[in-house]
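hey can u check if this looks right to u? its 817 residues, i copy pasted from the old doc so theres a chance i mangled smth
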Amino acid sequence: MTNAVLAQAPPHAENALSVGIEGMTCASCVVRVEKALKAIPGVTKADVNLGTETVRIEASPDVNYSAVQQAVEKAGYNITEEELDLDVEGMTCASCVSRVEKALRKVDGVLDASVNLATETARVRVAGGVAVDSLVKAVDAAGYKAARHRAAAGTAATTSAGSKRNEGLHVAIAAVLSLPLVVPMLAELFGLHPMLPGWLQLALATPVQFWLGARFYRAGWKAVKARTGNMDLLVALGTSAAYGLSLYQLLINTQDSMPHLYFEASAVVITLILLGKWLEARAKRQTASAIRALQVLRPESARVRRDGNDVDIAIDQVRLGDLVVIRPGERVAVDGIIVEGMSQIDESLITGESLPVSKQPGDKVTGGSINADGLLLVKTDAIGSETTLARIIRLVETAQSAKAPIQHLVDKVSAVFVPIVLGIALATVAGWWFATGNIELAIINAVAVMVIACPCALGLATPTAIMAGTGIGAKFGILIKDAEALEVAHSVSTVVFDKTGTLTEGKPKVVDMAPHGIERIELLQLALAIQNGSEHPLAKAVIDAASELSIPALPATGLKALPGRGMAAVVNGYDLRLGNTRLMKELNLDMSPLAARAAALEQSGHTISWLASVNGGAALLGFFAFGDQVKPSARSAIEHLHALGIQTVLLTGDNRGSAETVGNALGITHIVSEVLPADKAEKVAQLKREGRIVAMVGDGINDAPALAAADVGVAMATGTDVAMHTAGVTLMRGDPALVADAIDISRRTYSKIKQNLFWAFIYNLVGIPLAAFGLLNPVVAGAAMAFSSVSVISNALLLRRWKPAARHVNQMQGEQR
């Protein structure tokens, strides 16, 4: 965290600082914060505005963020923090990334900055009150162009298309001008010695050097002004040296013989690097195709039914509760609940599910999916940034803009890369001049050193692989929250599964009821009174069973949840407890009248809930047996994990008999049952203490602590928002086979990262010494440099050919249906 001074207010208020404060509720809070801030040495004034939750501080220039933050936190409040995204133009290599990050971190109030070369974006974490303009100015001062991140795909695509045409035209012109300079060099391979006149070589090379190569001079000069270096500076210096030497030789030559000129080296090197950059830009656009594909799904308008009329309005004018009409063949405009109509919905671009999903009244639909054949009326329940599609895009963007831990090593290398290369180039000139006395040869070898050195490949090695990996994962319904989750997931050795809703359908049904001392209908009616309105899967099963028999719900009072055990309530004078065997044992309930029957049902894989009255002592009223089907793909999912060498564990709060039935059916040997929600996290921690890298897979609120405790949390999007927020990986459909696919894509992505970094480092470690020892022609060095970054991106793009095993399983199941 930087110690930079806080965000300054408008220029006319010199030494005035403005920052947001969280947690203030009254005038006493205001007094407390002001008192804490005024106690900081150098602070002359502190005015807190409760309405806007901001504080304006007048202080000496040496007052830093840390002092203000500590004072505010000591007073019991927090400084508001937010993340801002910027588009950054002009970056060409890892050294540029380092420079932009350094410039942003120096801005008053910036807490951290992370720049991604592949996406050409910067994510900046700032204290509340920092203006985007101050960040833009800092980037501009560092020699680059910045603007607030464009969220719309259309603008970016238009800009990209125009830039692509210009780059392609420049490459073509450079190639036409350079080709005549290369022909004589190629002809020498066949024993021919044609040679263009010196003045013609100069005429062909000059526009390539100073017009088409002007971008290298501009960027290089900005680097010099910022007292740093980048790839552009190396190219500008190297090609200028070759061009300048050739021009000098041409001007001083007084003989009729042709002097040794190197115009072809400078011109061809620039041409090849322009070609490499053009190919690199094309490849980078392909790595970002996943985001663009998702952005295209964003609907621009919706047909809303108001006062009986259907009206087309802009999507940002739709409000919660609006009824939206979706015609056959149209894209679903909003997230919502179907209130009328039935249809098949194609959700493949959002969940990765290849088969259309049947929908009927009461079912949820997701904006961006396609309505196949029915007219639907949908009640809107999410808009703007809270829609599923918006959250998916946000997750993918966050993952693609984040840095993997391994990238920090690259950042350290790139920070000193250019100065080291320039030092090697100077040593090459001195060494060759001293050894041979031939300054011409010394300069040409130094040119080769500067031209072949490539920090670009280093900067692109990690982010391009992460973009490709997270992008292809998103395409098939696997959302990876950040680069760290991706990096850790590849080394997972144990996967822990919750049972209900994860390996089973999560839609249990009442398969048996056993009353004791009361009628069967009364048993169900009492249970319904306790469970009515609950979202728990077992509660829904009781509600459905009562609904089938048209049993009305009795009023209940004193409703109380007993975590990991059950529920308590008072119904018709009965003080009732509905829950598992653990709860009944705590009540010292005699379950022997129904124990044998319950045990048999548990052994056959059913879940038992007991009902008891505690009026004057615990009395057994009966039990319910619930059955839940195992998901069709669950067994193949476990087999796939075992094939990958990963151990599996079943961790559930359910009874041992039910857990063992499911575990044995799926091939899971390590089964932990009857675990309270609060204890799940400790079981995961215990596995970690054994030296395992643990992934936890769950879908409910009670799984959130265990998801957070695991090395990698994997949440089913069919579950709760709490679980998804806690997890590092979210599966957009409740298919356990996607767990193995998520680990597989992380392994392949991490493998690409390692391959790219290996080749990027080896390329420089081998290429620079060869050039320094005079074993590389500058033209060959330029070609190698130009295609090094292209090869890194192309290697990462191979990830786009990946196909999940889960997709093939689903297709086969669909065909069988």
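The first strand starts at residue 16 and ends at 22.
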